[in-house]
Amino acid sequence: MVRRKLVSTRVLKTGMKIDQSIIDSRGRELIARGVVLDDFQIEYLKEHGVAGIYVSEGEPEEVSELERNLPVYTRQLIEKSRVEDRSKVKLNQEVCKRVGEGIQYLFHNTDDEGFMETTANISNELVNAITGSNAVAIDINLIKVSDEYTFKHSVDVATMAMVIGQSLSLSQDELRELGIAGLLHDLGKSQIPLEVLNKPGRLDENEFQLMKQHSLFGFKILKEKNQFSDAIMKGVLQHHEKMNGKGYPLGTSGDMIHKYARIISVADVYDALVTERPYKKAFHKREAVEMILAMTQELDIEVMSSFLNCVILYPVDSIVTLSTGEPAKVVKNNRNNCLRPTVVGLKTGKLYDLCDDINCASLVIL
Questions:
Q1: One domain for residues 105 and 33
Q2: Same domain membership, residue 334 and residue 194
Q3: How far apart are CA 202 and CA 17, in angstroms?
C-alpha cells in the first residue's frame, strides 16, 4: 500500500521517493514527483532551505501483495533469469558539485584566461567517472548537476556523448575532446538575451531565428580564443546540423558533419525530449527513444544504434505493466532493444522475452 507522508529534510535518506514536484520561482520543475532521491538532491534541498517534503512509501497494494505471495517457482524463475544491468554512469556528490560549479562559471565568464583549463578539468572529471567505473550505459535520472536547465543540459549531453563515444571505440584523447565539445555545445546561448533564452513560452519567428544562431555564436567564441581544436569547434558549430542537410546554421549534411557533432546531436535531442521546460512537458524516456528511432533521415544511423545500445529505460528489478494489464518484474535488459527487456509476469509466473521471443511480439510495456 502506498502511503504519503511529510518528512523533514534533515532526516531524508537516499532511496526515498519524492511525492511532490520541486518547482523554482520561474515555474520550472527541478525535481520531478516520483524521483528516487540521491545524496546530491537531498543536499540541494537542504542548501535551498526546503524544510520538508512529501515522500511515498510502499508499492501499490496489488503489486506489493503479488510480490509478497509469489509462488516458489516464480521466485526461482526471477532469480534464475535475473541479469544485473551493465555499469551505468553515476556522478558522486563531490563530482556533481565541481562539475556544476565549473560549467556555470564557464557560461558566465567566457572571457576568462583560465577558460580552457577549466573546460579541460571538467571534461577530465567526466572521463574519469565514465572510464573509472567502466560505465557503458546511461540512465538519465542519474545525471544531475544543477537546477539551471542550460547547465544541467550541457553536462547531461557531454556525459551521454562520451558514453556513446566510448561504445564507438573513440580514444581517450578523443573522448576528452568530445566531452569538451559536449560541455560547450550551447555556449553561444550566453550571447542570447535572457528574455529570449528564458521565455516561458514558444519563441516567435524572429526569436527563433536568433536562437538558431547560438551554435555559430559558440563557434566564434571558441575560435577567438585560439586554444581549441578544429574538431571541438566543429562539434559546437554543427550539433544542430542534420544528415539530410535540413539543420542549421549552415545546412551541412552527411559526412561533412564532424563525428563529434553527430554524436552530440543524438544526445542533445534525447536530453531535450526527456527534460521538462516552461513551454513543454517532458516526454517519457520510452517515447523519446521511439521519436529518435523515427529520425533516421536526420541523425547518424551508427551513432543512433550505439546510443540505443547504451540507454537503460527499465532498470533490472523495476516493476512495469504489460499491455495485457499484468504487472511484471524486469529481470534482464536486452542490449539490442532497450524498449523490450525480459520480464517475469507477477500473476502468470511466465518469462516474457520481449526482444527475441516471437510469441511475445504483440506484448509491449505501457
A1: no
A2: no
A3: 32
